[in-house]
Amino acid sequence: MAGLLLNIEFNHNGLDMLGNDFISQATTMAQHFGLFDLEVQKKIEDKKLRDVWEYFSWSLFSWLT
Predict the structure, then answer these.
(1) Are the C-beta atoms of residues 19 and 2 closer than 8 Å to each other?
(2) How far apart are CA 24 and CA 46, in angstroms?
(3) pLDDT tens digit sequence for 25-45
(4) What is the number of domains present in the chain?
(5) How would you classify residue 34: left for phi > 0, otherwise alpha for psi between -120 and 50, otherwise beta?
(6) Residues 54, 57: Cα–Cα separation, whole Å
(7) Which of 19, 26, 47, 55 is the most exposed place for a label (fewest CB within 10 A)?
(8) Count of CB atoms situated within 10 Å of the CB of 42
């Protein structure tokens, strides 16, 4: 989430190239943690944590599109 927020801030301040590095790294980390993998999300037993994962994955997806 920090990478996403840093991307937004850097884009706002005209440092798009630096912001793109942060969003790229955030996406790579999200894939590494299985954020977009439905099977990984199903294994999370805590509903609040699963909701956070789903919210962040949709937020990242929406920002990238």
Answers:
(1) no
(2) 28
(3) 777 887 787 777 777 777 778
(4) 1
(5) left
(6) 5
(7) 47
(8) 9
Please give the residue range of the domain that contains residue 55.
2-64
The DSSP 8-state label assigned to residue 4 in this structure reads: H
Polymer length of the chain: 65
User: Residue type for 62, please?
Assistant: S
pTM of the model: 0.60
Displacement of CA 43 from its chain's centroid (Å): 19
Side-chain half-sphere of 33: how many Cα atoms within 13 Å?
A: 14
Which two three-digit tokens encode residue 19?
């912001």
Q: Which residues contact 40 (CB under 8 A, 6 or more apart)?
A: 33, 34
